[in-house]
Please model this.
Amino acid sequence: MKRFLPFLLPALGLALVCYTLRPTRPASAFDLAGFGQLPTLVNGRVKPLDTVARTSLLMLQGRQRVVTPASSTLEPVAWLLDVFFRPELADTYQTLEIVHPDLLTLLHLTTEAGAGGKRFAYAQLAPRLDELERQAQLAQPVPASERTTFQRAVLQLRDHLVLYRRLQQSLVPPGTTDLLDELRQFEAALPVGIAAARAKAAQQPYDEAALRRVLDAGQRYDALVQNAYLLAVPPPPGATDPHDWRTLGAALLGAFGTGQIDPHALTYAGLARTWRDQSAPAFNDLVRLYRAALADPLASDLRRCAIETRFNAAQPFYTATWLYVLAFLAAVVSWLVWPRGLARSAFWLTVLAFTLTTAGIAVRMWLEGRPPVTNLYSSALFVGWAAVALCLVLEALYRNAVGSVTAGLVGFSTLIIAHHLALGGDTMEMMRAVLDSNFWLATHVVTISLGYSATFLAGILGAIYLLRGALTRSLDQATADALTRMVYGVVGFATVFSFVGTVLGGIWADQSWGRFWGWDPKEN
Model:
C-alpha cells in the first residue's frame, strides 16, 4: 500500500481539477450562460458579457459572488442583468466595498450595516453622494503621490460608483420600465416627427407636439451614448473596421436617418422586458435567436466568447493556487516524516498545478492572440510559471523536496499577486505604444521575464537556506551543498536571460540599430 499512498494526494488534486472543468448544470430557468456569451466591445476588446460581469464585480467588491438581501446567491451574469434591466433591485445588493473608517463616517455608515462589515448597497450610499462628490473634487487636484489614504479611498469609491452607474445606463435609459414599448411608440412617432422637423427648417407650419416627442426621445438616447460603459451593437454588415461597435444609444439615434429601430436595440429591449417580467421561456428564445443572428457575421467572436466564458467558470488559476498550497505542505512535512513518500506526493501535486497553470496561460494567449506577457497581470503569471518550471527541474535532479517547497511558495505567491492585480479590471486588455508588437513581446519581454523568474527563484532558495538553517535542524551538509549549487545555477540562468533580454531588446527597440542589422521595426 505504501507504493500507492504517494499518489493519493495527487489523485485528489486531479479530482479537484476535473470537478472544476466539468460542465455546470444551469442554476436557473434562464439561459444565463447563453446571455453571458453574447459579445460586446469594452475598452477596445470584444469580450463576453460574462467577463464584463466578473471583472466589474472584482473591481467593485473584490470578489465575484453576489448575495441578495434575501440571502440567495446570484451568478455574476444574473447580477449584471439586474443592473441592466432591474436597477431598482440591483441598488439593494451590497456590492460596493468600503473599508476606510473615515469614509464610512462621511457616508453615515457602520460596519454592522454592511455585508462582511465592508460591502454596502448603492441605496445605502445614495443619501450622501453629494458630500462624497465634494470630497472627490477636493482630492482630485492633489498629486497622486501626496494624497492621503482617505483621499485615495474617496476617489476609488467615486470611480466605482461611476462604473456602476455607467453599467446601469448601457442598455436602458434611466427611469424606463418598458423599453420595448417605448421604442415601438418612438418608431411610430418618427415619420411625423421628422416631417415636423423638416417643416420647421423650411419655416412652414409643423406639429410642435410631434417634434417635441421625438426630440425628447433623442435626448434620452443621447444620454446612453454619453454614459454607456459597453458598446453592445456590432458593426453593420459590410463594415471594414471590426471594432466599429456602437452603443445602444447610438444605434437608436440612427433611427432618425433610417426611420427604423435597429434590430439589435429591439432585441435588448425584448430581453429587458422578459427579464423584468421574469419570463424564462421568452428570455431564452430571444437569447437563442439573437445568437443565431450573430452566428454568421461574428462567428469567430462568438467562438472566442464561448471559450472565454468557459475559462472564466473553470478558474484554473484559483484551483492551481490551492494545489500549490497542498504541494508546499506535503513537501515541508516530508522533511519531518516519511521523506520519500510525501516528497513524491508534493512533486506530482506541483506537476499538476504547473500543468493547470500552463493550460490557463495557453488559453489566455489564444484569446488575446499574443505571447504570454502583455501586462502586469500576465507578468505575474509568467514569472511564477517559469520559476515553478525551474523548481521542477531542480526537484527532478536533487529529489530533496526543496524544489517542491520552493515551487509551492513561488506558485502560490505569484498567483495571489495576480489575483490582486485582477482587481483593477480586465486582465486581457491590449498592449499600447511600442509594446503593441508580437515580435517585441516574444523577444525582449518574454526573455527578460525569464530572467526575472530565475532571480525571484534564487532569492526564495536563499531564504529557504537561511531559515531552514537558523530555525530547524534539518539542514544537513548534503542539503546545504545542494542548495548552494541550486542558487549558483539559477543565478547564472538569471544573468544570461536578463542580459540577453535587456541588451538585445534595447538594440531592437532602436530603429537606427535595427536598420543597421537589416531589420526595420516598422515592417516587422
Q: What stands out?
A: The first helix runs from residue 8 to 21. Confidence is low (pLDDT under 50) at residues 511-517.
